[in-house]
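B., you asked whether I could sanity-check this one before it goes into the benchmark set. Here's the sequence:
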Amino acid sequence: MRKVLLVLVVCFVTFASCTKENLKDGLALLDPSEDRLELDVQDFPFPSLADYGFFKGRLAELRPAAGVLPYELINILFTDYAHKLRFVWMPEGTSAVYNGDHDVLDFPDGAVLIKNFYYDRVQPSDSRRIIETRIMFKRNGLWEFAEYVWNDEQTVATLDMDGSFTPVTWLDDNGTERSITFRIPSSAECLTCHKLYDEAIPIGPKPQNLNSSYDYPGRTQPSVVVEPMNQLMKWAEVGYLQRGFPKNIETVPHWDDPTVDINTRVRAYVDIHCAHCHQEGSHCDYRPMRFAFHETADPVNLGVCVPPDDPLLPQHTYIVASGNTERSLLHYRFASTNEDERMPLMGRTLVHEEALTLISDWINGLQPACQ
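And here's what the prediction gave me:
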C-alpha cells in the first residue's frame, strides 16, 4: 500500500491559543508506516464529520490522517474575515490532471475537498471556534456537497444541508471587537456559486491559484524542519497530480501584495471573488463583465468605461468610471452589504474594508476619464 511519508499535523494541539500567523507552527511527522485512509464515496455523505476519518485524535484539532493533504490558495474568498483551512484527499492510485493554467484541475472520481471555517479569539472565551466544514466530493463524474455544522463544545460536526445562522463575536487582529450573524449555506446556496451549466464545480483549485510554496514538514529527526515546497510539485510527489504539467504557469499574485502593481492586484482579487459567477454557464453570465484573471488584461472585461445594463443609482454611469468611484457601480456593490446589491452576492455580511480601499485607489487612479 502506498504510504504518504509526510503528513502535516497542524498546531491545533494548542488550538485555543494559536493565531492565524502560527497556525502551521508545531509541525510533526506521522509514522511513515501508517496506512492511508480508505473511503468509498458511494457511501457519502456520512451523518458526522468524524465518520470519514479525515482527522486523527480530538476532532477539533483537525490533525490530518495519512493521505489527507493540506493546501492553500494564493487568494481566498472573503467570508466576513473567517479563516479557512483546506485539505484534499483522493483514493489510492488516482490523480488529478492538469487542464489549463486557469481551469479547475480535472479531479478523479472519489476526490474530496475539505474546507474548514473558523475564527480566532471568539468571545467571551477568547478562543478559537470552528463554525463549519464544507466538503465537496466527486461521485460518478459529478461533484456533490456535504455541509457539517460544529456544536458549541467543538466536539461534533453534524451534517446539515438546510442552511442556518450562528452569531459570532471575536476580536480582530487590531483587538477590535466585531460581531456578525454568520450564514452557513444550504445546498442550494452552495450551487449558486459552485455551478457551471447547472452542475456543481469547485472554484479554487486551479494551477494559477496553487502554484505557490507551502511549508511542509521536513524529514529531520528528532526535531522537525519546515521545508517549503511548491504545492503542485507536492501534489505530484504524493500522487495527487499527474506529472507533465507546464513549468511556466500564469499565476495570480497575492491581491494584497504592495510590491505588485495595483491593476494586477485588482485583477487577482476579482478573479477569486467574481469570476466563478461571471462566466458562461454561471449565475451571472448575462452580465457583460468577465473577471477571470486571464481575461482582465482587457479593461473592458473589468467594466472600465462600460455602461451598466442595470444601474442601481442614477449616478452609476459606468461599471467602472475611470477616476470616479461615485459613478462606478462596481465600487458601490463592493461597498454595499445589502443582499440585493452587494458583490459577491453570497458569503459576506461585512464590507471587505482592505479590498474596498484597493478598489477605490485603483478606480481613482484610472485615466483618462470615460467619455
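One thing to flag: The first strand starts at residue 55 and ends at 56. Otherwise nothing jumped out at me.
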